[in-house]
């Protein structure tokens, strides 16, 4: 476990630069490049995970190596489009860099909550991994990681929707068109839920085939049946993700990043961990408890985020009216 954390800490520079480049392309609305980098990175991770964990016998730390290499691949794609292909309106040159306290202040105000959100996700995964090791072993971890990696394909489209929502809501908020803000919020959730229903159905239907993405080697074939079972439960959490991501995107769009952080903490550190521990350890459901805890936690966090978002929008409309 310590080796896994150490590897990821050493790769913090790569993670940071990659996120910065993602932000540049998203800010320009160039989601195609963002999508390509994300999908290629995810595919790389899916391919390398079983190789490092089983074939090279690196165990848990192998997942960290795979993640680091996958992020590096995404970074190279983004850097190529920014510096070589120049598929961006922004020109990055150190010679033109001039510190501006106002811009730095704005970045810090929005960036610090986002930073803590990433930390929250990392801490949550660390704790979840520990719980998995309590009720299972590296085999269970491989199944859980594999299921998450595959369901990430259903997560990526929603990230794109949320990214676009941040820009739209930011524009409506600046124009004080709070009714349009409300419309954009509910429309994004509606489209997101419909999209995720289709994605979840496809993942569950194709689970025996998708499982081979992680079990194509002779060593990893042993977890195929377990991974298929996981893929018929874990993807259900995607149904509630639109409520969470859309609400977080809305708060970021109106400059209330700290409220997005509240949602992230409640979701990752309270809901996911609490339900996983309750079902897997206390109730003794083991890996089934881990999967059920993830889905139940996402459901609870989705309700919380949705109510939080509705109250915030009502407050904005009420403020404008009076």
UniProtKB/TrEMBL annotation:
Membrane-traversing stretches: 6-25, 34-56, 62-83, 116-135, 155-175, 187-214, 234-254, 275-293, 299-317
Keyword Transmembrane set for record: yes
GO cellular component: plasma membrane
Main subcellular localisation: membrane
Subcellular location, record wording: Cell membrane
Keyword Isomerase applies: no
Membrane-protein topology: Multi-pass membrane protein
Keyword line: Cell membrane, Membrane, Transmembrane, Transmembrane helix, Transport
InterPro entries assigned: MATE_fam, Membrane_Transporter-Flippase
A GO molecular function held by the record: antiporter activity
NCBIfam families with a match to the protein in the record: matE
Protein name as it appears in the record: Multi antimicrobial extrusion protein MatE
Organism: Methanotorris formicicus Mc-S-70
């Amino acid at each position: 476990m310590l080796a896994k954390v150490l590897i990821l800490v050493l790769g913090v520079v790569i993670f940071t630069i990659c996120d910065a480049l993602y932000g540049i392309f998203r800010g320009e609305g160039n989601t195609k490049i963002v999508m390509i980098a994300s999908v290629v990175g995810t595919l790389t991770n899916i391919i390398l995970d079983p190789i490092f964990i089983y074939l090279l016998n690196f165990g848990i730390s192998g997942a960290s190596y795979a993640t680091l290499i996958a992020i590096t691949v995404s970074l190279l794609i983004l850097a190529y489009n920014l510096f070589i292909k120049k598929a961006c309106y922004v020109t990055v040159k150190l010679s033109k860099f001039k510190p501006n306290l106002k811009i730095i202040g704005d970045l810090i105000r929005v960036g610090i909550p986002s930073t803590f959100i990433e930390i929250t996700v990392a801490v949550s995964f660390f704790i979840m991994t520990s719980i998995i090791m309590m009720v299972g072993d590296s085999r269970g971890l491989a199944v859980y990681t594999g299921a998450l990696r595959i369901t990430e394909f259903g997560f990526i489209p929603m990230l794109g929707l949320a990214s676009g929502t941040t820009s739209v809501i930011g524009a409506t908020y600046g124009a004080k068109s709070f009714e349009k803000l409300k419309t954009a919020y509910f429309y994004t959730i509606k489209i997101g839920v419909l999209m995720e229903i289709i994605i979840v159905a496809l993942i569950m239907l194709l689970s025996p085939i998708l499982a081979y993405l992680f079990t194509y080697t002779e060593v990893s074939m042993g977890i195929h049946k377990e991974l298929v079972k996981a893929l018929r439960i874990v993807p259900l959490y995607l149904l509630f993700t639109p409520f969470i991501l859309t609400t977080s995107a809305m708060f970021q769009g109106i400059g209330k990043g700290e409220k997005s952080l509240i949602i992230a903490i409640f979701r990752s550190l309270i809901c996911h961990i609490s339900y996983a521990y309750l079902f897997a350890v206390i109730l003794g459901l083991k890996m089934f408890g881990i999967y059920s805890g993830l889905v139940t936690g996402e459901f609870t966090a989705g309700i919380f985020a949705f109510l939080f978002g509705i109250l915030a929008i009502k407050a904005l409309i009420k403020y404008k009216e009076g």
